[in-house]
Amino acid sequence: MSDAQAAQPLLGQNVSKAINAEGSQTYVRYRRRWLTLSIVLLLQMSNAMLWLAYSPIANIAAEHYNTSAQTINWLSLLFMVVYIPIGPVAMWCLDTKGLRYSLILASAINMVGAWIRFAGEQLHHPDAKLSAQFVGSFFAAAAQPLILGCPTLLAGTWFGEAERAMANTIMSISNPLGIAIASVISPIIVSKPSEMGTLMMVFAIPATVGFVVCVFLFKDKPPTPPSASAHEESHPFFEGLRLVFRSPAFVMLFLAFGIGLGIFNAVSTLLAQMIAPQGYTPNDAGTFGGILIGSGLVGAGIAGAVLDCTGAFLTVERLSYWSATATFVLFTLANKPDRWALMAAACGGMGFFCFAVLPTSLELGVEITYPIGEATSAGFLFLGGNIFGILFILLMEYPLLGPLVTPNTTDVASEDPFGQTATTSGPPKSYPDMTNSCWFLVAAGLTASLLTTFIKTDYKRRISEKK
Asked: Is the peptide bond before 371 cis (omega within 30 degrees of 0)?
């Protein structure tokens, strides 16, 4: 089969053509672009599910593995730590080896990690089980830089100018969607320590499906580019590395996005522990996480549509950051007993505005650094987010922790409209108060919002396509 035939859509021929102003180049958009997008969406969700499988059930997992909740948090932190050395390698792989090679490699590593974690649950000693979870998590973590770094490259390779932002939005929010699935499913499956093995098996299935469809259905690029920028060659990888941080605008974006993603990673990892001192249960954490992600999907979708129609990257970026910071304040003030509805509203607002930041920042990074490869700018942005995420989680877990609090869960139970509050037996448990950690996130959000006001740039890719 020729490359042209391989890139044809599953049904019918290519559906959209455009000729540039000089009439010298035909740009083609293939139906198959939606299949490639769907495969990346599956890989993103699968990897995110493996990343934060333990966070909503950290206390149950700690009991199962006979360890502390802080040790369980390291199963999530490991993804951020591994990203730092693997991230630059992933950028190089995407830029030089292409999408197909990179994603087959990533999906294979992701699948191996998932099944190692399941196999570990068949061991008998808690220490052996926990060790297997760390080994499996390391493999899944090594796949994450390739999976997270590909959406801007795929959007630029397969999608036209008027649909890139929305394509990038769909792929980018599939990672938080995987987090939402983990937040909801983990507490449903695991109500007692003995059910951890079932959870690992359930989460290994989408990882396996992702590998199979990637091998047999994913194509590297279409035979004819969809836009002028896709037709042009980007800077060689190492030249792009040398140039990317010479842009003051990208440095400001790197810091702002790093702080913003660090906040999101910290909240995703520690949400259950942030609200437990106020009497909220793992099921509450799963519900709040689902509300956060669900509203985030709406916010990101609106942001993607606005960006495709207007190209107002900086306006959307600044509005999203300042609004997200306001919702951090609301969350901190609402995090008290007997405020279930207000907590749900705060999480909804956080998700709506935080998720709008993700595709906006990734697209803005490409516009600032063009013609540096899309995977390079996106890779550095995610690298910054993981560095800040590690710092934030460690600060929130240790020096910022308050005194132990013993919650009264009876009042909270009456406020849960879904009736999902878990019942507990035995003496009430005490948890460290995390109010100081919440206010720390507010301060971090204010810092990131201020940084966005200093970003001054032309939209270089859009300017190039209009020439």
From this structure: yes
